[in-house]
Amino acid sequence: MKVGLEVHQQLAMSKLFCDCPAELSEEVGQTFSRRLRASGGENRAIDPAAALQASRELLYRYESGPSNCLVEMDEEPPHALNPEALDTALQLALLLEARPVDEVEVMRKIVVDGSNTTGFQRTALIATDGHLDVGGRRHAIDTICLEEDAARKVSDSKDGITYRLDRLGIPLVEIATGPDIHSGLEAREVAEEIGALLRSTGRVRRGIGTIREDLNVSTEGGRRIEIKGVQELRMIGEYTDREVARQEALLRLRDRLLRRGVTARTAEIRDVGEFLADVVSGPLAGAPGKRGVILALSLRGFAGMLRGSDASEERLGRELADQARAVGLGGLLHSDELPGHGLGTTEVVRLREALGLDEPDAFVLVVAPTRERAEAALVRVAERARSALEGIPGETRDPLPDGRTRYSRPLAGKDRMYPETDVPPVAVPEERLRDLSSHLPERPATLRHRLASTFQLPPDLVRQLVAAGDASTLEELVRRGRSPGPVSRLLTQELAAAVAAAPRGSDVELSLDQLDALLRGAESGQFSKEGIPGVLAAWMAGAPTLDAAVERAGLAGPVLEDLDSIADRVVAANAGMVRDRGAAAFSPLMGDMMREVRGRRDGKDVAEALHRALARFHARPPP
Fold first, then answer.
1. Distances (CA, A) of 105 to 9, 102, 171, 419
2. Which DSSP helix (H) or strand (E) runs through 125?
3. Residue 239 in 3-state DSSP?
4. Using one digit for the tens of pLDDT, what is the confidence trace for 375-416?
5. pTM, whole model, 2 decimals?
């Protein structure tokens, strides 16, 4: 197997071709609609991915807000390329030891899925031929590009999609590796290192949706598959390994088809509504008639090949159904899953006789509102069935939450590119590169080594801090007098857990001063380290000050009595259990103690006080 990555990272600055702020907003001002069509690229050919998107004939609705101007609405030409974004991309090129171009030429990349009001995305090649060392292996960095992000999808329906324009135009750096990664684990490690390098610049946006990866995966005997838009680092290995399993299953299926002697004969499409008019349940109930037409496609020699094997989740029937979904249908039924779905043995036999099928043959059924839509779906299904004889068609696939993927569109190619005539070229003189070279940040490997030796922290903890871009926060808080251990625990565990638990859309950013105050509160005894998660949650939920967060967390109140006194009182209240259970009484009593102190004293101190109280109790003479 071979894997290549394309890492897309938003930059923290104004938009790429205007001065609008790169901020997301729920405020909606103007709305408008567009329809987009595919056009030829520089070679005058129409890209197949663009052609498929245009064939859906959707209406695209757009919502603009405070972070938009006429540029995003495509009512004004783009402004000059953002120089700060260009400097950041060049800085990354130098960190990756890539070769910057002499002159940056902005190109148009045709995209007609509605995510750009123009029907294209602006992109520019910044550098080539770099490398990155990860785990003792050198990985090629083929290209570094600078491009504008797309609008974000708000909702969709059968006839159209609604986008919000606040994200459109945010600068993106794209770093593409060579196809020299050989496992899902290695893909994750390379992606993590690229992410750490990006965050080392201090010029990237943080949070969900600000960084995403495209995975290009191929196996021996197959073709390249692009998995588009993976947003969770932890899922990269899962998507990679499951894509390999999918390709291996399809290659085994190809071999079975060829051994059976199946050939790429023209598939037959027939209207079979008259044979299914009496179906009263399942997806075909009520069709034909009000719900439209039912068409069947004969697949000679495919019987038993559509449902897959019990040992694999992958099956050709799912691949065929994705092709029907690509033209707006809900899917299809195939003969390997029948009888079922409202069709009995009688209907299946009747269909097979009407289609003239023999025992080795299969068929698929689609229901659609029009004959044109049903035929368009079955033409795509027939083509996908023919390509099964070759193994794996190259395509773009969307990631699903469970680690599987789904067909999205054909692979895009060079036919969708042509020059952007509204943005002048930008020269990259040697003086600019020398100046940027003199201000490069530490590379992640160098930073990890320095942090580990300076603060005596475990390597895994240091890796987490560097990968998350929290090294500078650690160093600043230590300079303010905080201890490295509690700081690193706060950044990698407690803060990360609080952010994950916060309601979607919450403002969960805490400043350095707030983090410093939080740690000082724990150090001074205002609350214990066990109380930090509760205080964090209250602060992120809107508490205006640390004192208010402590109060909301239920940790404020009068000074506690001496821990030993509390422990003696808890032990005395449970004397019978202590005598009956001996040392085993410690755990339930510890729970009582922690409820008494409510996060205002450290668990270690509480446990020591309880051990002392138990020793005193057992040392007393029996009553």
1. 20, 10, 16, 8
2. strand 120-134
3. helix
4. 999 999 999 999 999 989 999 999 999 999 999 988 887 778
5. 0.83
